[in-house]
Amino acid sequence: MATIRSVVRGCGYHLPERVLTNAELSRMVDTSHEWIVQRTGIEERRIAAEDETTSTLGLKAAEKALADARLTPADIDLIVVATSTPDFTFPSVATQIQAGLGITHGAAFDLQAVCTGFVYAVATADKFLTSGSHKRALVIGAETFSRILDWTDRTTCVLFGDGAGALVLEAQLGTGTSEDRGVLTSHLRSDGRHREKLYVDGGPGSTKTCGFLRMQGKEVFKHAVGMVTDVITDAFKATRTSAADIDWFVPHQANKRIIDATAEKLGIPSEKVVMTVQRHGNTSAASIPLALGVARADGRIKEGDLVMIEAMGGGFTWGAALIRW
Ligand SMILES: CC(C)(COP(=O)(O)OP(=O)(O)OC[C@H]1O[C@@H](n2cnc3c(N)ncnc32)[C@H](O)[C@@H]1OP(=O)(O)O)[C@@H](O)C(=O)NCCC(=O)NCCS
User: Fold this and answer.
1) CA–CA separation, 80 vs 121, rounded Å?
2) Which residues have a Cβ under 8 Å from the Cβ of 60 and sit 6 or more positions away?
3) How many whole angstroms separate alpha carbon 146 and alpha carbon 82?
4) Given 115, 157, 187, 194, which residue is catalytic?
5) Residue 112 sits in a domain of what CATH number?
6) Are residues 107 and 207 in the same domain?
7) Is 194 a catalytic residue?
C-alpha cells in the first residue's frame, strides 16, 4: 500500500577543533587514561571553544547535511533540534539555526529527551513528514555538555564531549514494506521515576542557574542494556525484521561496555556496530548523528542499508528507530 516515508537525503556533522585527551584530564582530576578506557572505551573528546555554542555547531552540521543532500535552505520547511544544552533558555536553538540558514518559512523547534533526543527528533520529524504537513526536515542533534559539567567531579567530567550532527529527511512515496527506504518504525519510551539517577541540579524555574550534570553511573548502567534491547525488539517486531537483517547498528555512544553488551544480547556481530565513543565521548543527543555522519563519510553506510539507531538517557528516556538508508 502506498505510504509516505521519511527518506534520508543527506547527512553531516561538525566537531569543535579542541581535543581533550584522557592524559590531560588526569592532570585535572584524580583519574587515569587506563581507568577511563577500561570502564568506558573513551580515549578523547572534543570541547567547544569560547565562541562556539550548540547553535553554531548545529548550524555547521546542518550546512554540511544540506550540501550532502544537494539541497538549499529554501527546500527545508521543518527544523527539529534535539538538545539539552541550548545557548539560551529561549529562543530555541532551532530558530537560531533557521535564521543562520536564512530560512523564513516553515517551523523550527527544540526537543529535549537528553541522550535519547535524536531518536525522539527522528520520530517526531517522521510524524510531521508522513502526515503530509511538511516536505523536508532538518533533524539535528547538537550539544555542548562541557558547559554543564562539574570539572572537579571525576565520576562525570571524563565521560562527555561536544559536537553536532544532522540528517535531511524528505517525504517520498514508498510501498509500505520494510524494503522501502526511509524511517520504517520508531519506538519511544520514558519513565520519570528514574529522575535522580541522571539529572542536572539547576534550571531557570528552580535555581535560576543552568546547573551541573549529576549521575549515579552504576544505576544508569544497570538499566541501560535491558531498556534499549526492549525497544529494539519492538522495532524488529513492527517491521518483521531481525538482528540478522541489520547492516549497521548505530547506538548512542555513551560507553563501549554498554554498546558491546547490547549488541551481544541482540546477536549483532561487532563488525556491524558503529563505534565513535573512543573519539567523541558521550555527546548526548549529538552522538547518533555524529556516528551516522562518520560511517556515511567513510563509506560504511550505503543507500539501501538497514540501520538501527537506539539510545537511552536522563529521565529516563529511551528509544529506537529502524531506517533504510
Ligand atoms: C560511570 C562508570 C564508567 C563508572 O564505572 P563503575 O565501574 O560503575 O565504577 P563505580 O562508579 O562503581 O566506581 C568505582 C570506583 O572508581 C572510582 N572512579 C569513578 N570515576 C573515576 C575516574 N574518572 N577515574 C578513576 N576512578 C574513578 C569511584 O570513585 C570508585 O572508587 P571507590 O571504589 O574507591 O569508591 C559506569 O558506571 C558507567 O559507564 N555508567 C553508565 C554511565 C552512562 O553511560 N551514562 C550516560 C547514559 S546516557
Assistant:
1) 6
2) 14, 164
3) 16
4) 115
5) 3.40.47.10
6) no
7) no
